[in-house]
Amino acid sequence: MRKIDCPSYEGCDASICPMDDQSVANSIWFSDEFICKGRKCSQIPWIRKQRKIARLKPNTNGFFTVQMLNSIERISKGLKEADPDKTNAEARWFRHRNY
């Protein structure tokens, strides 16, 4: 395991670590999962969006990637997540989303 320059890394339960390039590039986040609480990362736009989405408490089992989070301009109750049961879920999400 690589050492990440974050004091909370070893005990952190966030599924996407903003300080781990591999995590950011390859991970998915479900809206009921933990979000990074590191002070250095609190102003990262996609982490702020994760917090807003989590406050909406969506009741689906879909997911978001960092690329999806970065593309979202407005967060509201109608925001749809990608369906993990579909092939190419992220690509489908981008094709079918409402801008």
Spell out the key features of this protein:
globular; mainly alpha; 99 residues
What order do the strands of the largest sheet run in, or round the barrel if closed? 1-2
Overall helicity: 25-40%
Main pleated sheet:
2 strands, antiparallel
How much is the radius of gyration in Å?
14 Å
Number of strands: 2
What is the CA-CA span between the terminal residues?
39 Å
Provide the domain count: 1
- Please write the string of helix (H) and strand (E) elements: HEHEHH
Structural class: mainly alpha
Number of helices: 4
Strand content is: under 5%
Shape: globular
Mean of all residue-level pLDDT scores: 86
Low-pLDDT segments: none
Q: What topology emerges from the helices and strands here?
A:
Layout: H1 21-26, E1 29-30, H2 45-56, E2 63-64, H3 66-71, H4 89-96
Antiparallel strand pairs: 1-2
